[in-house]
Write a structure and sequence with these properties.
The chain is an all-alpha fold. It has helices spanning about 1-5, 10-15, 20-30, 35-60, 60-65, 95-115, 115-135, 145-160, 165-190, 195-200, 205-230, 240-265, 270-280, 285-295.
């Protein structure tokens, strides 16, 4: 099973579940019924598991070319030797495809019970993920697609707890996730794969703009993420004090801004990109813990 979990980056996927969980609790102002939580966890796990597997399936041939001479050490939340098991021929393409189909169906069934609208979001995320992978050698603007895919989870969570959410509030959540994904995940991950991407003539932000500008772009995205986080209480049915905004900003400074500055200052050190990626991966979980404390205490 380890090969299948490596295909779906399960360690990272489990962390990602904290993002829709945080948004759902923030939006509703409390935890939903246990039955909803149970179905949502299964559905979210299935959705992330299927999407990450689809990434490797869609990029199979390019990944083989990228990693034919071996791969780098990776970053701590995705540092398994089994990374990219398809490209390493440790898992057959057919097995990987069946794994994707299984979890995609679980995700679609769970989404239907939660809110049929989420089925459309999930199917859209699958399509965008394929397009994102196919644009590796075409344009660095594909990073926006990465943000769209990653935002599908939190946006879906909104439709779990609110059948007709306010559009502007949805867009605020979308912007928060988009900037976090670009600055803390996508650019950092591409930075970590610079040498491998050079082999296939990939078009990524670190390769196109160089370390200085890429570092500034990442830091700018992370700064916008932290600024927007201060306004996220406006989407909640829970009355959150100014202290909540202060605390969420402090979380962002510690997990996003400081690692982002560190990456920009030490541009030649790929370990700084790994450091940023890891810290940014825990950002949604930290916010989930914060909102949980507010729900329990206030």
């Amino acid at each position: 099973m380890n090969r299948f979990f490596a295909l779906s980056r399960t360690t990272h996927g489990v962390l990602d579940i904290a993002n829709p969980a945080f948004i759902a609790v923030l939006w509703l102002g409390q935890y939903p019924p246990l039955s909803t939580i149970f179905i949502s966890i299964i559905t979210a796990f299935a959705g992330y598991t299927a999407t990450y597997a689809l990434n490797d399936l869609a990029g199979f041939s390019v990944d083989q070319e990228k990693y034919k001479d071996g791969m780098n050490a990776g970053y701590s939340v995705e540092s398994s030797d089994l990374r990219y098991p398809l490209a390493q021929s440790k898992l057959s393409y057919r097995s990987g495809f069946l794994w994707f189909i299984f979890w995609a169906l679980i995700g679609l069934i769970g989404s239907y019970f939660l809110n049929p609208v989420i089925d459309l979001i999930l199917l859209g995320a699958f399509g965008l993920e394929i397009l994102y992978v196919r644009l590796l050698k075409v344009t660095y603007w594909r990073t926006l697609l990465s943000g769209l895919v990653k935002s599908s989870g939190p946006i879906s969570a909104i439709f779990v707890v609110d059948q007709s959410p306010d559009l502007w509030k949805v867009l605020l959540v979308f912007a928060w996730v988009l900037f976090w994904e670009i600055g803390g995940q996508n650019i950092a991950a591409d930075w970590n794969d610079i040498e491998e991407d050079k082999r296939v003539r990939a078009v990524t932000i670190p390769l196109v703009f160089g370390p200085n500008k890429a570092g500034l772009i990442a830091l700018s995205m992370l700064t916008l993420t932290v600024i927007i986080s201060a306004f996220l209480p406006s989407v909640s049915n829970l009355t959150l004090t100014i202290w909540y905004s202060i605390l969420t900003v402090l979380i962002g400074i510690y997990l996003l801004i400081i690692p982002g500055i560190d990456l920009w200052r030490h541009q030649g050190d790929g370990r700084k990109a790994a450091f940023l990626f890891d810290h940014a991966s825990y950002y949604p979980l930290a916010n989930l813990i914060l909102i949980t404390l507010y729900v329990l205490l206030f």
